[in-house]
Amino acid sequence: MIGGLETITMELAQSLARSTQSVPQDAVQVTVVTPNAEEAAHESDLPFRIVRKPSFTQLVRLIRGAEILHVAGTDMLPLLMGWLLRKRVVVGHHGFHAACPNGQLIYGPSQAPCPGHYMAGRHLQCLKCNAASGKISSLRRWLLTFPRRWLCFRVGANVMPTAWLGSILQLPRMVTIHHGLRAGQGPVSPQVVGPPSIVFLGRLVSTKGVHILLQALDQVRDYEFQLNIIGDGPERARLEADVQSQRLEARVIFRGTLVAEEREQALAAAKAVVVPSLSETFGLVALENMLRKKVLIVSEIGALTEVIGDAGLAFPAGNAQALADCLERVLQSDEFAEQMAARAARRASSLFTPERMVNDHLLIYRRLLGTCPGGDLRV
Fold first, then answer.
1. What is the DSSP letter of 344?
2. Quick check: 150 and 293 in contact, CB under 8 A?
3. CA distance 294 to 311
């Protein structure tokens, strides 16, 4: 499975291993443990060890031998084992699982952003939220949130990719470390043919808000452009039906999942990238396309606005008319679009670097090991 969590885990593991190789006494030995049994191409070239689908006994041995256990997410088994074995545990939060039974902070019946029912003690609403998956499944998700949160209270550090996520999870010993990515190897020469291209890139699920983007297209019919939807998922058939019912077939192209070269070519020709998500903890697709020097139009939710700052356009989540207004601003002026794209690239390359991400993680590890002064960890 390739997504934001996997991308950041790979970047962090590689950068940790490589950044300390030149100083043997400070070298970090990294082992990545994954439940995925399928090997990746060129895996032997990676600067860290990979253990795939370990047995329970092997996992216990790995955790017991680690000086630092970094859990990417809030999986119960490694969290519990880390606590039982009295290890120094760091949790990298990539979702809302420590404060929301479904981990998305989306209220199921309405598919709208959740106002925080679990944290407010409105637990009956949590059970209703996930009822579509069955009563037993809903009850199980709700019950597991309590021990998961309890375990997160007992780790050495809770790492948040955005300060906004920390305000939602409200855990002790929180540290905000923004994700960091490397810029590409250079711009791909776009093959611009026809009208300007607007791009959505991501999984086709309801929480990504593609249906809001399609509604917004009705409001900008006076402008010539093409919407390229890159990605696939369970919502594709419904979205294709929406395109037909709104008579948008001439404007919307479903590109599916593209290989890297095709994806880069499609993005190189994009005038703007739209991220209309209803829920995000960071929004890695926004950062990736800031580094590509693209105009970003994002939902006005805490994580996304924290990432783009003043280097993009934002609209209230779920508001199709406001999204249409943002599209209109970009389509009206090439000069405005170029200025915003340049601003996005500068912000991304200065604030969201792998070097900063790695150094901040190393500081946490060393403080937990007692090899670096600094006192208690704080936001």
1. H
2. no
3. 10
Is the fold of 4-181+354-369 the same as that of 197-351? yes
| Long-range Cβ contacts of 130-133 (<8 Å, 24+ apart) | 130/101, 130/102, 132/108
Closest to 285 in 3D by CA, of 332, 213, 193, 352:
352
Q: Say if residue 197 is exposed, middle or buried (CB neighbours under 10 Å; 0-12, 13-18, 19+).
A: buried
Averaged pLDDT for residues 277-302: 94
How many residues would you count in the chain? 379
> Pick from 335, 336, 344: which is nearest to 291 by CA?
344
Q: Is 321 left (phi over 0), alpha (psi -120 to 50) or beta?
A: alpha
User: For residue 266, which of 277, 254, 275, 276 has the smallest C-alpha distance?
Assistant: 254
Which pLDDT belongs to residue 376?
Answer: 42
By the 8 A CB rule, do 209 and 277 touch? yes
Classify domain 197-351 at the CATH topology level.
Answer: Rossmann fold (3.40.50)
Q: Which amino acid does the sequence have at 264?
A: E
CATH code: domain 4-181+354-369 is 3.40.50.2000
Element (H, E) at 52: strand 49-52
Domains of the chain, residue spans: 4-181+354-369, 197-351
DSSP secondary structure code for residue 39 in this structure: P
Query: Which DSSP helix (H) or strand (E) runs through 361?
Result: helix 354-369
DSSP 318: T
Identify the helix (H) or strand (E) that includes residue 227.
strand 226-230
First to last CA, the chain: 31
Span 133-149, pLDDT tens digits: 899 999 999 999 999 99
What are the tokens at 52?
A: 């795939």
Neighbouring CB atoms inside 10 A of 57's CB total: 8
What is the reported pTM?
Answer: 0.89
Is pLDDT above 70 for 80? yes
Neighbours of 92 (CB within 10 A): 21
Residue the block writes with tokens 């949130």: 145
What SS3 class is residue 138? helix
The answer on pLDDT for 126 being more than 90 is yes
What's the token pair of residue 238? 């419904």
